[in-house]
Design brief:
By secondary structure, the protein is mainly beta. 4% of the residues lie in helices and 67% in strands. The protein has a six-stranded antiparallel beta barrel with strand order 1-2-3-6-5-4.
Length: 110
């Protein structure tokens, strides 16, 4: 099923041993998901000592294994920008089959 024409990269992290301070070493595992639709939702800006722009986005992904494995520890990379995952919800159709995955995203630019 194709929801859109965009391709996004789902980035999950795995632990691959420990460093010299006995801290876990995290390794990024990237998986490209095609047929997605990225949609902007809102933008806000805070002006003060540091200017911060916050953008809220939503990504609709086909129900492939990488999309179903998205958690709040994941990141989505689209068009060279990295988005923080706020939540992911599989959506089912009238037959009870998973139709797509809706992922809520946030990007902050300081």
């Amino acid at each position: 099923m194709i929801l859109g024409a965009q391709s996004v990269t789902v980035r999950n992290y795995t632990t691959s041993g420990r460093d010299r301070l006995n801290q876990p070493v995290k390794t990024a595992v990237d998986t490209v998901v095609k047929g997605c639709a990225m949609q902007p939702l809102s933008t806000s800006e805070t002006v003060g000592l540091t200017d911060v722009e916050t953008e809220m986005w939503q990504c609709f992904m086909p129900p492939v294994s990488a999309a179903l494995a998205v958690t709040t520890a994941s990141e989505i990379v689209y068009s060279g920008m990295t988005y923080q995952v706020l939540g992911a919800r599989p959506k089912v159709d009238l037959m009870g089959l998973t139709d797509h995955v809706a992922v809520d995203l946030k990007k902050q630019i300081a």
